[in-house]
Design a protein that fits this description.
single chain; 329 residues; alpha/beta; TIM Barrel; Lyase, Ornithine Decarboxylase, Chain A, domain 1; 8-stranded parallel barrel; 9 helices
Length: 329
């Protein structure tokens, strides 16, 4: 059976480095959405909790309910209001026209559009939003934004920072004790100074991506299904995309694109961590390569596969099927 190994010490070290940078675990919001970026939210939750993390962000209510016993504060980022919101959770208000659909008394964080133009209200709508929040008796607990280009060397990051500073100033004139947060993983390692009046909403950096001083947490393994000698001139897999130039001992391993791997089509050189090349096209449930034992590490750094497939590490990680067992090592 294919397997995901989670390096507990690496995860703990990453969180400790992040906490050191921001100053205190109470200032950290760990983003656990989409099964903790494919790493396994339930397996990581108790580790984060033991390190003092008590605030996480998730995608939806389903994820919130799965983790409610671990964390006091859970922010739901992609919620469609239905009038039966749970008073234990905090809900992102992403669209002002939906505000009347929230249950009275619901805890909310107001999303501000400072330039991402994806979710959130414009700065010009803030006063109107406050009036509606008060009229509908919603419980405003915070305001936040998302940087569109914190990892790009242009001025947009600083423009968004300034806009959010204006929002914080205005919001705190109207409400006491608001939690404000704008810094994501990219902003955390770009900025020279950390804002002292904000929380930090950190996702991918927890898992070792975004800074050279962090450690990769996840390794993906496959296990041997069968082996054989591929004779010179014989091919393996669909479409005969690989043919042996000499007799070659190969094996087939139990991981394919149904498990979340990208479908390698046999073109170009895609290597496993032991520098063995995948031979032929990846199938739905398996791939082939030179025989290399009962267990083989497919990757321990998603950037390698992301670069090959011209995408980002996030996509490689979150596509890993939740049914693949995850264990701490």
């Amino acid at each position: 059976m294919s397997l995901i190994k989670i390096n507990q010490k690496a995860y703990e070290n990453n969180l400790k480095k992040i906490i050191t940078r921001i100053g205190n675990p109470s200032k950290l919001i760990c983003v656990f959405k989409d099964n903790a970026y494919g790493h396994g939210a339930k397996i990581l939750a108790p580790i984060a909790r033991l390190l003092g993390i008590d605030f996480i962000a998730v995608k939806n209510e389903k994820e919130a309910y799965e983790l409610e016993n671990f964390f006091k504060n859970i922010l739901i980022l992609s919620h469609r209001p239905h009038g039966n919101e749970n008073p234990k959770f905090i809900y992102a208000l992403n669209e002002i026209s939906k505000i009347q659909e929230y249950k009275s008394g619901t805890q909310i964080h107001l999303k501000i559009d400072t330039g991402m133009h994806r979710n959130g209200i414009c700065i010009e709508e803030i006063e109107n939003a406050f009036l509606k929040i008060d009229k509908l008796k919603l419980n405003l607990k915070g305001v936040f934004t998302h940087f569109s280009s914190a990892d790009e060397l242009d001025a947009s990051f600083f423009i968004q920072k300034e806009k959010f500073f204006q929002v914080k100033t205005l919001a705190r004139k109207n409400y006491d004790g608001l939690a404000c947060h704008s810094y994501n993983s990219a902003a955390l390692f770009r900025a020279q100074e950390m804002p002292q009046d904000e929380l930090f909403r950190i996702g991918i950096a927890q898992f070792g991506y975004g800074d050279k001083n962090l450690e990769k947490v996840l390794s993906l393994y496959a296990h041997k299904l069968s082996e054989r000698v591929l004779k010179s001139g014989q091919s393996v897999g669909y479409g005969r995309s690989f043919s042996a130039e000499k007799n070659l001992k190969i094996a087939t391993y139990d991981l394919g694109y149904a498990d979340g791997l990208f479908r390698y089509n046999g073109k170009g050189d895609l290597f496993l961590t032991n520098n063995k090349k995948i031979l032929g096209k990846i199938s739905m449930d398996s791939f082939s390569c030179e025989e290399c034992g009962d267990e083989v590490c497919v990757f321990n750094d998603a950037e390698i596969w992301a670069n090959f497939f011209n995408t980002i590490s996030y996509e490689i990680l979150v596509k890993l099927h939740p049914d693949i067992p995850r264990i701490l090592v």
